[in-house]
Specification:
GMP Synthetase, Chain A, domain 3; alpha/beta; EC 6.3.5.2; GMP synthase [glutamine-hydrolyzing]; 3 domains; Rossmann fold; binds xanthosine-5'-monophosphate; globular; Class_I_gatase-like; 18 strands; ligase; five-stranded parallel sheet; about 25% strand
Length: about 500
């Protein structure tokens, strides 16, 4: 595999992505992580700092000692230059954006034209080469654009992983197959086989537990680990009563009947609703649900399990790496509210280095139905944060039905897959209406649908009026308790996606 040392470039993920697309497994680690096993090549990413800064992230000692092929990109190139005895300085010319370079004959540039456009973003440049190094590409300003430090150590001043760099993929490909002489053997089928074997060897005849939420990541993790250890995996689905209509029945059916996993469904509805009585503050709701989830999970797991399986995926790892270290940190958003602190588990995160779309493809290979794999995100606290004000069973029933109709309408009109997330919100406002000859006084329901990439920002979806009309007519006709429907036309920011 290829190990990418992350020096903080915004393109590090792209590097991992490109390498996998070329059929080689790649993994991103931090400079102070332990060296992984079975390294086939090393890439040093770009980064925002100057290698001359006092707090510049260093080159770990083990890297040059491995004698493995290395490719430094931008900061990576400068780090190699400095480390191997060259000199890096802030030059008068900084290059940002598209820059033409002229390349020399070298295996890393095989099948690439002499002049290509590359993507640069650097203020520092190498001004003095380390011994035995040679410049193999230059910009018009005579800045070193690529350096060969030895037969298997290269550096690029530009970013080959960015689409603006012409033949960038080819350069990466040449590094992988001509310099590092790696094999093209990464595929999801291969990953599945390897992972199952690895998990089986690690857990052996011990027991593992997973909290299945019915979302994509935990579903895929459950099925994967089940393939490895079968009955020794206990999959627990906690029904806090705040789920979508018939969710608990559906999830149980899918996992029991279709996939053959004996899912333990814990009906904790009453516990949760009791605790949530009279609570209107959204943060309190979240906290109560998180804590109660821990209690329920504790009761189920007691101390009978050695391993805890988590559905952490690559974007979660990246996020926690940005905030320091990426080891065994349990982030509260993986499930409703974190996990018991006083229960000792060894944690296994089988999907840790996968992108969301890879997780979905693995799910497909493992036979998980598409509607589980491609469904919209659903918050851990569930409908509790979509009922504004106090949560009652009556309101839950109203919201579940309304939400179901809205989603059904979107699916019927081929809009479900066009939006990131769509749902309804029950407000505590009641307004006047007229039904037949009768005055009516019922709740206002809001419809929300947004388009987004990762949920960090979002635009409200421009769903055709006819579809909104269809949903509105059906909901007011079929759901007792709703007298008026409004469409939320706020984006994020300033609003959040959820209302609470
Ligand atoms: P907001 O409302 O913050 O939502 O714009 C961004 C994304 O996160 C989901 N969300 C949550 N997920 N626990 C979760 O597991 C939560 O407490 C929570 N709050 C929001 C939300 O559905 C959206 O996809």
């Amino acid at each position: 595999k290829v190990v990418i040392i992350d020096y903080g470039s915004q393109y590090t993920q792209l590097l991992a992505r490109r390498i996998r697309e070329l059929g080689v497994y790649s993994e991103v680690i931090q400079y102070d992580d332990n060296p992984p096993d079975e390294i086939g090549g090393i890439i040093l990413s770009g980064g925002p700092k100057s290698v001359n800064d006092v707090d510049a992230l260093p080159l770990p000692k083990w890297i040059l000692n491995t004698k493995k092929p290395i490719l430094g990109v931008c900061y990576g190139l400068q780090l190699l230059s400095k480390e191997l005895g060259g000199k890096v300085e802030k030059t008068e010319i900084s290059e940002y954006g598209k820059t033409e370079i002229e390349i020399s004959n070298d295996p890393i540039f095989d099948n690439i034209p002499k002049n290509i456009i590359t993507w640069m973003s650097h203020g520092d440049s190498v001004v003095f080469l380390p011994k035995n190094s040679s410049v193999i590409a230059k910009t018009k300003n005579n800045i070193y654009a690529a350096i060969k430090f030895s037969n298997n150590i290269y550096g690029l001043q530009f970013h080959p992983e960015v689409k603006h760099t012409e033949f960038g993929d080819k350069i990466i490909e040449n590094f992988l197959f001509k310099i590092a002489k790696l094999e093209k053997n990464w595929s999801l089928n291969y990953f599945i086989e390897e992972k199952i074997e690895e998990i089986r060897n690690e857990i052996n005849d011990k027991k593992a537990i997973i909290a299945l939420s019915g979302g994509v990541d935990s579903s895929v993790a459950t099925v994967l680990v089940h393939k490895a250890i079968g009955k020794n995996l206990k999959a627990v689905f906690v029904n806090h009563g705040l789920l979508r209509l018939n969710e608990e029945i559906e999830v149980k059916k899918i996992f029991n009947d279709l996939i053959g996993i004996n899912l333990t469904v814990i009906d904790a509805k009453k516990r949760f609703l009791d605790k949530l009585k009279n609570i209107i503050d959204p943060e309190k709701k979240r906290k109560i649900i998180g804590e109660e989830f821990i209690r329920v999970f504790e009761e189920v797991s007691k101390n009978n399990y050695d391993y805890l399986i988590q559905g952490t995926i690559y974007s979660d790892v990246i996020e926690s790496a940005a905030s320091g270290k990426n080891t065994a940190k349990i982030k509260s958003h993986h499930n409703v509210g974190g996990l018991p602190e006083d229960i000792e588990f060894k944690i296994i995160e089988p999907l840790k280095y996968l992108f969301k779309d890879e997780v979905r493809k693995i799910g497909e290979i493992l036979g998980i139905p598409k509607h589980i794999l491609y469904r919209h995100p659903f918050p851990g606290p569930g409908l509790a944060i979509r009922i504004i004000g106090e949560i009652t069973e009556e309101k839950l029933n109203i919201l579940k039905k309304a939400d179901h109709i809205f989603i059904e309408t979107l699916k019927k009109n081929n809009w479900y897959d066009k939006v990131w997330q769509a749902f309804t919100v029950l407000t505590p406002i009641k307004t006047v209406g007229v039904v037949g000859d009768e005055r009516n006084y019922d709740y206002v329901l809001a419809i929300r649908s947004v388009n987004s990439v990762e949920g960090m920002t979002a635009n409200w979806s421009k769903i055709p009026f006819e579809i909104l009309e269809e949903a509105s007519t059906r909901i007011t006709n079929e759901v007792k308790g709703i007298g008026r429907i409004v469409y939320d036309i706020t984006s994020k920011p300033p609003a959040t996606i959820e209302w609470e």
